[in-house]
Amino acid sequence: MTAIPCRLCRGRAQPLFKLTYLCRLDVQIYGCEECESLQTEQPYWLDISYARELMGYGTDTATRCMNLEAWVTYVALVFGKRPSKTRVIDYGSGPGLLVRMLRDVGFEAFAYDPYTPGMLAGGYAGDVTAQHDILVAIETWEHFADPEKELDQMFAPGHDLLVVRTQPYRGEGPSWYYFFPETGQHIFFYSHKAREWIAKKYGYSVRSYGDMSIFSKRPMSRMQQLLLDYHALPLLGMKALLPLAPRDGLRRDMDLDIRHFREFMAKGDWAEKVRELERAHRATAPSE
């Protein structure tokens, strides 16, 4: 197996190991020598991964949006932005719950998602080519088949701030939970070095806190950095304590989702679609 160009930085990405995607497909995973990110081979299975019948799994959506509404509000205030005068676009908004919550507290928030209709954000479709005060991208970057192209589009309008959430890759192996190979939707995994590389490419500064990164078009003042560094203090109110609460239900439902997904993919019609996809890929793939 030979190296491939990294789909983010065009560096040299070496084969590391294989995973089983969509419960059947043998997918090669690569690690980039330059930006230290992880990625699948060129994804050829996304039409199945994003089939409407498979898009109903929303575990953690409510808890995540409660946390993020507080996060975005806090970040806006740190950078001197009043909600009533702040335009926000949620890039990859899903059903639109976060957009609805942000609008409820005063933000001019809009939704953008090419795969999921924003049932809770009807009438508030956003223009991704327009400049906004804040762009929010939550659990979105790991879905990018061509991150270089997607990030070019995301950063092009020159938004003041970007609030991005995706689990950072820190050298995990094949058992890392964040692959979620059953769904086939998580296909690119960014290291902290990659986040710094992205910020530099587009002329932004960045502060990262675990799975959360704040990109700022203007250099951050020392006070802004300190306020962000202490984001977990009670400044966020009780919502900041939600991640510390027992999450037995979340863990249970994530396990159930994976089991249901496996059962669904084993059904005759879907199993045959995946087999056909596998045969077509093998017929066109270059021999090693």
Explain what this protein looks like in three dimensions.
- The protein is of the alpha/beta class and 288 residues long.
- The chain has a domain of 159 residues: Rossmann fold, CATH 3.40.50.
- A six-stranded mixed sheet has the order 6-5-7-8-11-10, with helices on both faces.
- Helix 3 links the parallel strand 5 and strand 6.
- The relative contact order is 0.15.
In short:
The protein is α/β, with parallel strands linked by helices and 288 residues long. It is built from eight helices and eleven strands. Strands 6-5-7-8-11-10 form a six-stranded mixed sheet, with helices on both faces.
Q: What is the C-level CATH assignment of the domain at 61-167 and 192-243? A: Alpha Beta
Q: Point out poorly predicted stretches.
A: 234-242
Q: Describe the main β-sheet briefly.
A: 6 strands, mixed
CATH names the topology of the domain at 61-167 and 192-243 as Rossmann fold
What is the alpha-carbon Rg in Å?
19 Å
Q: Helix/strand-derived class? A: alpha/beta
* The CATH superfamily title of the domain at 61-167 and 192-243: Vaccinia Virus protein VP39
Q: Which architecture name of the domain at 61-167 and 192-243 does CATH use?
A: 3-Layer(aba) Sandwich
Sum up the overall morphology in one term: globular
Q: How are the strands of the largest sheet arranged?
A: 6-5-7-8-11-10
Number of helical stretches of at least 4 residues: 8
Beta-strand residue fraction: 15-25%
Q: Please provide the ordered H/E string of secondary-structure elements.
A: EEEEHHEHEEHEEHEEHHH
The pLDDT mean sits at 87
Instruction: Compute the separation of the termini in Å.
Output: 6 Å
Percent helix range: 25-40%
Number of strands: 11
